[in-house]
Amino acid sequence: MSIRRSELAVGEHVFRVNETGEPGNETVLFLHGSGPGATGLSNWEQIIGDLGDTFHCVAPDMIGFGDSSHPLDPPQGMGPFNELRAEALLGLLDTLELDRVHLVGNSMGGQLALLMTLAAPDRIGKVMLMGSGGAPTSTVSPGLQHLREFYAEPSETSLRDLLSEFVYEPALLAGRIDAVAADRMAYVERADVARSHRASFNPTGARRIFTPDELASIDHDVLVIHGRDDRIIPLEASHYFAEHLPNANLYVIGRCGHWTQIEHPQKFETLLTRFIAEIV
Fold first, then answer.
1. 251 vs 269: CA distance, rounded Å
2. How does pLDDT run across 122-167, given as a tens digit for each residue?
3. How crowded is the C-beta side of 151, counted as CA atoms within 13 Å?
4. Cβ atoms of 99 and 222 closer than 8 Å
5. pLDDT tens column, 67-78
6. Could you tell me the domains of the chain?
7. Could you tell me how many helices (H) and strands (E) the chain has, helices first?
8. Which residues are catalytic?
């Protein structure tokens, strides 16, 4: 299915929005993860193309990513920057005249999904978290450290090496990784993208960890998905969310890294479709 692309003003920000499907269908808002050059399409292009006959799919570039706005004086640290992003996303729902949406959040996008649900619970239906950040994990993986420090020596080779750490079997996805790296480099080389990345991963900035009490207050149905072999966010993070979200189920995928939707797209699409239809 062809993807509709638009730019929408939300307050002082502008979102690049990618859509498929009819707005009269159930709307799923797809929230991409972080990393150099990340965009809505680099995370979700195949998925929203495949699912456009079933859902109204919306996959924006987050504020500070891709072709959406990059603040000149951005908040420092992933925690404060994500608060701004979540607030802007709720404004995007107003602009799109969407009263209620389901959320799918990958990595950083999982943090945004939780922030949106805490801030406006009545506007959120079901929530799928995929390798989500925001848990009090004890260590930083080498892959996540590489992501955070990418701009110390940015290059296409470094980017391909980083993206290879996102998947379980890089050799099987070599062509896809090369294509994503080439697409992302056009963004990596932009000064505004580099500024937003450095602000998000400013080591002096605040992190955002979701407490057990906060998670206990979320009574939405949540499906927590994690690749068993994830080298970016450890599986223990999803165990934490599954333990403290009262209506959560955990689904672990073997031979899978951090990119469930790219490594196992058919399984991901089946899980999401059945989850929203109340079958799982």
1. 14
2. 999 999 999 999 999 878 999 999 999 999 999 999 999 999 999 9
3. 20
4. no
5. 999 999 999 999
6. 4-276 (3.40.50.1820)
7. 11, 8
8. 258
